[in-house]
Amino acid sequence: MKDLNAPRPVPRAVNWNRLEDDKDLEVWNRLTSNFWLPEKVPLSNDIQSWSQLTAQEQTLTIRVFTGLTLLDTIQNSVGAPALMADAATPHEEAVLSNIAFMEAVHARSYSSVFSTLCNTAEVDEAFRWSSENPHLQAKSRLILDEYDASATPLRRKVASVFLESFLFYSGFYLPMHWSSRARLTNTADLIRLIIRDEAIHGYYIGYKFQRALESRSAAERAEIKDFAFALMFDLYDIEARYTEQLYDPLGLSEEVKHFLHYNANKALQNLGYEALFPEDAARVNPAILAALSPGSDENHDFFSGSGSSYVIGKAVATEDEDWAF
Amino acid sequence: MGTPRPMLVYYSSRSGNTLRFVERLGLPALRIPISPKAAMPDPRAPYVLICPSYADGSGRGAVAKQVIRFLNDPQRRAGIRGVIASGNRNFGSYFACAGDLLARKCNIPVLYRFELAGLDSDIARVRAGLDKFWEMECSTAT
């Protein structure tokens, strides 16, 4: 039993020239070089596009964004700080402090969208809606229970990866959908910056989960895997209902669920686990995939293509500096 | 001489996504080590490289340093015939961009792209694709 009255130990000063885990520096560099603020995105270019959405589509969009704001708020103020206490290295704590701050930037970004496109009354109404929405509250509850001090470091990491790599996607779907129809394209640019950050967060926390698992017994590993899949099922149940409530009026629920399956499988892979949902159920509308990674499918690859002829050229001399672009 | 055995060379960081993909492929494969101090593999036959992407928001740093070191050796580089690139679509237009970069630098085709540790259909497509690819390689080799 920990002595609760013991004075807080003085932490070790963090020395970035003595790494215990190279991944800490790699991810720190990636996150800091990706730093951004919402002011960099010209959201006001979406004002005309916004005015062309129906009132119903506008309300849906604002609600979806308040739901995303709630998740970012939780991760900023509770999730990432809770993980810091479990950090295996002082550098991991520093990376988590970056993650915590960027979640605050994400949460702040939605308000930038609101102040650019919407009126105050409808935004206030949407925040009220999110604070009363049973599904949004239920998924927050499940995650917060795992962030609680009574849970374990491994469970906290599982919950955190599920928030970063799964729970956001019922919301992210909508701006990708608008973007695929050439609507709110600047807002979509901002959301893609958030999506990029969340991918690194989920990857890094999932990586730390796998490292922490290495020292555990087979029985403990089996137990945490059972826990992870059970939590995924519980969260999925809530997400499916949340999705229907939001997207049924637009007839998009089934398509959004495919996107949820796809992202649930990716969240599990971040933890080192196999996919859960069958591929048929996780096949995402190509227009949404193209909105996620624009332009990346222009050069078709050989195995997916027609198998037409290609030319093998001569390899040219390469040096380290050739690769740095 | 029989047909040359299809050889794979791959890099996987400690997150293990590419390693899991290669294990499920179940084909002969040499690993480029994570540690710069460890010895590089020396593929004596033509090979296909499987390589994850680590690009930042501007596409920099996509190819892992150890992969660059591996390919900087002219003899090892001479054997590369194609690249299979992995990544995450969340990185937007830079999804699996290590493949495009290596294709340009080494003048080879991007054979396939997959996300994270790949799905069963990715495994099936890569197995079938590699079979066909090596057949063509053998028939065009002089």
UniProtKB/TrEMBL annotation, chain A:
GO molecular function: metal ion binding; ribonucleoside-diphosphate reductase activity, thioredoxin disulfide as acceptor
Residues reported to bind Fe cation 2: 103, 164, 198, 201
Top-level EC class: oxidoreductase
Cofactor binding note from Swiss-Prot or TrEMBL: Binds 2 iron ions per subunit.
Pfam families: Ribonuc_red_sm
Cofactor annotation: Fe cation
Active site feature: 110
GO biological process: deoxyribonucleotide biosynthetic process
Assigned keywords, A-Z: Deoxyribonucleotide synthesis, Iron, Metal-binding, Oxidoreductase
Superkingdom to which the source organism belongs: Bacteria
A cellular-component GO term for this protein: ribonucleoside-diphosphate reductase complex
EC number: 1.17.4.1
Residues bound to Fe cation 1: 72, 103, 106
Catalytic activity: a 2'-deoxyribonucleoside 5'-diphosphate + [thioredoxin]-disulfide + H2O = a ribonucleoside 5'-diphosphate + [thioredoxin]-dithiol
Subunit structure: Tetramer of two alpha and two beta subunits.
NCBIfam families: PRK09614.1-1, PRK09614.1-2, PRK13965.1, RNR_1b_NrdF
Role summary: Provides the precursors necessary for DNA synthesis. Catalyzes the biosynthesis of deoxyribonucleotides from the corresponding ribonucleotides.
Family (UniProt): Belongs to the ribonucleoside diphosphate reductase small chain family.
Protein name per UniProt: Ribonucleoside-diphosphate reductase subunit beta
UniProt organism field: Thioclava atlantica
Lineage: Bacteria, Pseudomonadati, Pseudomonadota, Alphaproteobacteria, Rhodobacterales
From TrEMBL, chain B:
Gene: nrdI
Record protein name field: Protein NrdI
Organism the protein comes from: Thioclava atlantica
Any GO molecular function: FMN binding
SUPFAM superfamilies in the cross-refs: Flavoproteins (SSF52218)
Family: Belongs to the NrdI family.
HAMAP family the record matches: NrdI (MF_00128)
Protein task: Probably involved in ribonucleotide reductase function.
InterPro entries membership: Flavoprotein-like_sf, RNR_Ib_NrdI_bac, RNR_NrdI
